[in-house]
């Protein structure tokens, strides 16, 4: 009861930091925003169960109070790592001064900067992006979801769109309120007004008529994947840039956040966020390549079925995808292995890939069968990847888990691009097999939002600073 009471006192501090200062707090990479008192306690317990050093609620309280005192501006702050650095500094340390020093030399983004976002398409990824952007609304700055563009499907289209945002069979109910303003074609979600625009022509909408300017259009339709098709969006007044949520065709840059997002320049008007599988496996492959060297490998994905498959047997232009998705395992192709090279050129020509679609609605599994330059043992690899997930610059992309009971549904809603299953790791000399889980809907959507933040220049600074992957072995 005492712990619960203390956790309840932490919640307003966490909320104020987020709403008033744009500070996202986490415990070893797991967010503690919008959690109940029990949820805050569980976040601390989960960290301990995963082998992290113990973090008490009292230590978290001290860090939060220091953050509120110094008001550093938008940032992603791991309170656990700050608390542990305080512990290492010894007793008698000025907590506020120590936390302030963690921000020294960091470029803090303008807290007032905002960028309009338009979602072109409102399917599985579009609605999850909407949920994430609404939850990130914070103090009203940063990324602002202003509109969605869809083709009218029925007379009560607006109500149906709002209902699909509010209720999801996989990801559960929307955390808050969703209302409709039918007269103005507006959905209001947790106070965020989202203009619904009905159009089938990406070049025909005047977004400035809705007060939208210099917007990033996120194309979720997958209808156009080349520069020519996607450039149609740029002909609509109010659009500055376009981001595709699917693999883009050359010469488009395929961006995997954490890997090659530094390649984004102000001159890039059209970008791709690659695929869910590419986002899941590329960070893990980078980590392994830097530590052990990848000679060659094969990627097999066990992938949940998607909308492009038939529910029951019927004609389909694609091979095998016409057979019932809910009754069959379906062998199909994947371009993810080759796409890795677009973000990680050093692996060009080293990977092959294939995929099996299975009768689950979400969460997939990538099996990486690799030949290494330098030998490794299971314990060495697992310890390395665990450290990468905790301390490296890839900690937003890679998570690590060891549990004999964990199954695919346990990863629904994961914020990470991929989660290494340590108990399944096989390492025998220069032969290695890794199993990487990923929420191919939500985890990928989180990666898309990170790319959006990079494009907009609103990605928060990270405190404490994360180390390069190659340094993760030192802890």
Written account of the structure:
- The chain is α/β, with parallel strands linked by helices and 475 residues long.
- It folds into three domains: 2-108, no CATH class; 114-246, 3-Layer(aba) Sandwich (Rossmann fold); 277-441, Dihydrodipicolinate Reductase, domain 2 (2-Layer Sandwich).
- The protein is built from twelve helices and 20 strands.
- Strand 4, helix 6 and strand 5 (142-150) form a beta-alpha-beta unit.
- The mean pLDDT is 91.
Structural class: alpha/beta
**Into which percent range does the helicity of residues fall?**
25-40%
Which CATH C-level class of the largest domain is it? Answer: Alpha Beta
What share of residues are in beta strands? Answer: 15-25%
Number of helices: 12
Radius of gyration: 22 Å
| Largest sheet descriptor | 9 strands, mixed
Q: Provide the CATH topology of the largest domain.
A: Dihydrodipicolinate Reductase, domain 2
- Sum up the overall morphology in one term: globular
> What is the assigned CATH homologous superfamily of the largest domain?
Dihydrodipicolinate Reductase, domain 2
Question: If strands are numbered along the chain, what order do they take across the biggest sheet?
Answer: 6-7-8-5-4-9-10-12-11
Mean pLDDT: 91
Number of strands: 20
Ends distance = 35 Å
- Contiguous runs where pLDDT drops below 50 for at least 5 residues: none
* Total tally of structural domains: 3
**CATH level-two architecture of the largest domain:** 2-Layer Sandwich
């Amino acid at each position: 009861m005492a712990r619960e009471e203390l956790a309840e006192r932490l919640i307003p501090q966490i909320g104020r930091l987020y709403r008033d200062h744009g500070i996202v707090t986490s415990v070893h990479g797991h967010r503690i925003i919008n959690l109940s008192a029990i949820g805050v306690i569980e976040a601390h317990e989960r960290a301990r169960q995963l082998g992290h050093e113990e973090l008490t609620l009292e230590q978290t309280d001290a860090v939060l109070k220091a953050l509120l005192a110094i008001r550093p501006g938008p940032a992603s702050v791991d309170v656990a790592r700050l608390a542990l650095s305080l512990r290492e500094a010894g007793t008698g340390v000025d907590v506020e001064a120590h936390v302030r020093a963690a921000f020294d030399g960091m470029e803090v983004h303008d807290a007032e900067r905002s960028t309009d976002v338009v979602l072109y398409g409102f399917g599985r990824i579009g609605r999850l992006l909407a949920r994430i952007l609404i939850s990130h609304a914070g103090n009203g700055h940063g990324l602002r979801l202003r509109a969605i563009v869809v083709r009218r499907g029925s007379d009560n289209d607006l109500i149906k769109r709002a209902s699909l945002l509010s209720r999801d069979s996989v990801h559960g109910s929307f955390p808050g309120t969703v209302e409709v303003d039918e007269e103005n074609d507006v959905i209001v979600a947790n106070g965020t007004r989202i203009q619904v625009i009905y159009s089938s022509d990406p070049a025909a909408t005047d977004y400035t008529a809705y007060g939208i300017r210099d917007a990033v259009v996120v194309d979720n339709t997958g209808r156009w994947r080349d520069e020519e098709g996607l450039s149609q969006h740029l002909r609509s007044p109010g659009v500055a840039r376009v981001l595709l949520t699917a693999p883009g065709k050359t010469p488009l840059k395929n961006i995997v956040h954490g890997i090659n997002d530094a390649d984004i320049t102000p001159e890039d008007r059209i970008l791709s966020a690659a695929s869910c599988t590419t986002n899941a496996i590329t960070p893990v492959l980078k980590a392994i390549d830097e530590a052990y060297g990848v000679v060659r490998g094969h990627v097999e994905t066990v992938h949940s079925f998607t909308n492009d498959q038939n529910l029951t047997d019927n004609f389909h232009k694609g091979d095998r995808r016409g057979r019932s998705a809910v009754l069959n395992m379906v062998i199909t192709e994947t371009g993810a292995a080759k796409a890795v090279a677009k973000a990680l050129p050093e692996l060009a020509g080293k990977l092959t890939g294939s995929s099996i679609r299975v009768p689950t609605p979400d969460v997939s599994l990538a099996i990486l069968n690799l030949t290494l330059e330098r030998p490794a043992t299971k314990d060495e690899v697992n310890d390395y990847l665990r450290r990468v997930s905790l301390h490296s610059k890839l900690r937003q992309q890679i998570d690590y888990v060891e549990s004999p009971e964990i199954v695919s549904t346990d990863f629904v809603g994961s914020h990470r691009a991929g989660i290494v299953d340590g108990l399944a790791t096989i390492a025998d000399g220069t032969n290695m097999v890794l199993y990487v889980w990923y929420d191919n809907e939500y985890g990928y959507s989180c990666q898309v939002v990170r790319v959006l933040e990079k494009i907009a220049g609103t990605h928060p600074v990270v405190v404490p600073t994360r180390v390069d992957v190659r340094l993760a072995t030192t802890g």
